[in-house]
Structure formats: C-alpha cells, structure tokens
Amino acid sequence: MPVLKSDTVPIRSDADVVAVRQIVRVWSIEAKFGLVDQTKIITAASELARNTLEYGGGGHMFIELVEEGVRKGVRLTFEDQGPGIADVEQALRDGYTSGKGMGLGLGGSKRLTNEFAIHSVVGVGTRVTVTKWK
Amino acid sequence: MNTTGSTGLRPILERHESTLLANWITAQKAAPTYRPDLIKENELRDQCRDFLRALMQAVQSGSQNVDGSEWQPVRDLLASISRSRGKQGFSTTATATFIFSLKEPLFQLLQQEYANDPKVLAEQTWATSVLLDRLGLYVTEVYQQTRDSLIQRQQEEMLELSTPVVKLWEGVLALPLIGTLDSARSQTIMENLLQKIVESGSETAIIDITGVPTMDTLTAQHLLKTVAAARLMGADCIISGIRPQIAQTIVHLGVDLSGVTTKASMADAFILALKRTGFAITRPTAGR
Ligand SMILES: Nc1ncnc2c1ncn2[C@@H]1O[C@H](COP(=O)(O)OP(=O)(O)OP(=O)(O)O)[C@@H](O)[C@H]1O
Ligand SMILES: [Mg+2]
C-alpha cells in the first residue's frame, strides 16, 4: 500500500492530545474525507491518544496518508512503552475501565474506523493501529 | 596585560564608548528587524547606553563567568529589555538582534586595537563572539519565558471568556459551548454552570454544543456529569445543537444520552424550557 507521506507526533501532555486532533483533522481533509468521516477519525484519535497518555504513560502517534487504488486513507499508529494490557478482550469490552473513564474509548475507536489492530505485551508496551478510508 | 578570555574588550569599552554606541545604534537601525513603530529611538539609545555601561563594569571586574554575580547587572538589564520587547510584540529574532548587532561594531574596534597582533586579535574576536552568543542566548530564553507566560495568561483568560452562562428567561439559563472541551475547561464550565444555577435558582439549563467540533468519551463524560450534578441541584439540563456528525460519532462510541433531554436547536430547547416553566409564546393578534 503506497504511503504518500508520514509524520510522528509526541504524546506527552494534554496539549499534545490537542495537537494530535489537529493534525488528524488536517490530514483527513487532505484525504478528502467528508465531515462525518473526519469527525470519526478525529474522535478515534482523541480516544487512542488519551489512552496512550493516561495508561501508556505517554508515547507517540505515527500518522500516514495512504493510498490504495483510487481511494485515500489515513492510518494512525499509537505506541507507548507502558505497562501493556493483560487482557485485550476485556479492555475492548464496552464499559470496562481500569480508571475513571467510561470504558468506551478502545471499542469506540474500533467502531469509528475501518481497520483496527492492537498489539500489547505486558511490561513492554502497547501499539494500536487504525485506518480510515474515504 | 591579560589577554585571555574577553578581557581585551576592556580598553575598547573604556576608550571608545561613544563610537561603539553610535555604530551599534546604526547597525540596529539598519537591521531588517528594526521596528521604529514599536520602539522610539531615544528609548533604544538609553537601553544601549545602559547596557554598554553594565557590560563595561562586568568586564572590569575581570570575571569571565557570565552566570556569576559580577554579571548580574548585565543579566538583569537584558532580562528587562527582553521582557519589554516580548510584550511590545517584537519577534525573537528582533529581540536577539539587540545583542547580535553589537558584534560587528565591536569586531571593527578590536581590529583597530589589535591590528599589530593577529594572534591576540583572533583570540579576542573569538572570546567576544562566544560572550555575545551566550548573552544572546540568555536574551532569547527570557524572551521565550515572557511569551510563554503571556500565552498561558491569555489561555486562562479565554477559558473564562469562553464559558459565559447567560440568562435567557426567568428560570432558564443557557450555556453555549464553543471549541473543544479539554479536562481543565470542562471543569471550569461545569463549576461555572452549577454556580449560576444556585445563584439564579434556575430550573432549566440549556447546554448548546453547536460550537463543539468533536465529542469524545471524556467530553461526553463531563457533559453527563454536569447534567447529573445539575439535576441534584434541582435543575434539568437540555442539550441542544448536536450536529449530525457528532450524533453519529456518539452512537459509534456507545455513549448513552438517552437519559438526557436533547433538542436539535437552541430555539427548540428554549421553547421546551418555557413550556416547563409555564410560559407559552403566542403571536399577539390584537391591533391587526
Ligand atoms: N495504551 C494502553 N496501555 C495500557 N492500558 C490501556 C491502554 N489503552 C487502554 N488500556 C486499558 O484498557 C481499558 C479500556 O480502555 P478504554 O479507552 O476503552 O476506556 P477508558 O480509557 O478506561 O475510558 P474512556 O476511554 O471511555 O474514557 C483502560 O481502562 C485501560 O485499563
Ligand atoms: Mg480511553
């Protein structure tokens, strides 16, 4: 799958989460997403960035503008070197939170995007990749 | 004579003060960053003269340590110049130019002074350059701090400004939300609204989210908490202005807003609120 361009955004503070939303907005406009799809991917990015910050102890987002045939897409990879997730299935379940959240972020971002992959190793870290196609 | 470090500056500062001052000011006025609209020439002249005096004293002390106490007056002066430039609206480059524009006139004088001794000249030029770089860096740092605190204060002001609770009618408050709701802002907004509910004894609060670009679980949670807290205080909240893209996102996220009254627009919410308080809007027919 051809990658048209890519960039990395650090996630260390609340302000960085705002920066994540902003860059995802700009790139999804570049991928010619409509308002609904823009809002969906921005929201997913916001959820995953906050998880990276809150549970992963910070990390970064890798953003790519991808192309497949005639359609464009935005792929986001969130990575941290945090504690990892012991039970991914449980983490994905709606309503499950180990903190004070609603427990909807992870499952929600899966529903808001077209492709979703999570790779987590306890004691090593977590990587979540989502792709949204136009 | 001690020619190590920047001590070679001493005779120059002592003997050529007025030449240096004149050349330095000329250099600053010639720089592309010169802003006569932001600073008056006599103010600039005063700053330059004060700086050269402070620099001379620091050099006379013999101390090479720019961070030491002998250099305190120089640092204080630069800090105050830097701060005032930051507030006056000068750019970083323009502010740092104050120091860097001193290089050329100083180098010229060094060349005259040590024309017969290339080794000393090279040493002195190098030492002076290092010294000015460090002072320039200091200016930039102070400038940055000033701008940062300015931005932070503006952000805090905006935080206040952007959460106005307005009274629409007896017993009806409205909170038009604009922009993204981050934790800090959500907290302020919630407290502000609850406070106003108490003060006014209102029964209905309309929270309009037309101006909210995205709603993630954190925002939704804050909103739901606000609604719940308002309810405990005897006020019902109506959420209005949920745009289609936000509605779809909320559904995908799985956020349940079924316990909250929602209306498409602020106008619809207002009519409902009036109805609840026993008012009705009618078009007067008399006098037609
Ligand atoms: N990057 C991560 N590192 C470690 N644990 C994580 C990470 N992301 C999610 N988790 C775990 O998965 C749980 C579920 O995450 P999810 O985003 O669905 O809910 P939440 O963050 O708790 O609440 P919400 O996102 O609704 O505000 C979290 O409570 C946390 O225990
Ligand atoms: Mg979450």
UniProtKB/TrEMBL annotation, chain A:
It comes from the Bacteria. InterPro entries: HATPase_C_sf, HATPase_dom. SUPFAM superfamilies: ATPase domain of HSP90 chaperone/DNA topoisomerase II/histidine kinase. Pfam families: HATPase_c. Residues 36-134 form the Histidine kinase/HSP90-like ATPase domain. Coiled coil: none annotated. SMART domains: HATPase_c. This is Anti-sigma regulatory factor. It comes from Limnoglobus roseus.
Automatic annotation (TrEMBL), chain B:
Keywords: Phosphoprotein. The keyword Phosphoprotein applies. It holds the Pfam family RsbRD_N. It comes from the Bacteria. Transmembrane segments: none annotated. Residues 162-273 form the STAS domain. This is STAS domain-containing protein. It comes from Limnoglobus roseus. The lineage of its organism: Bacteria, Pseudomonadati, Planctomycetota, Planctomycetia, Gemmatales.
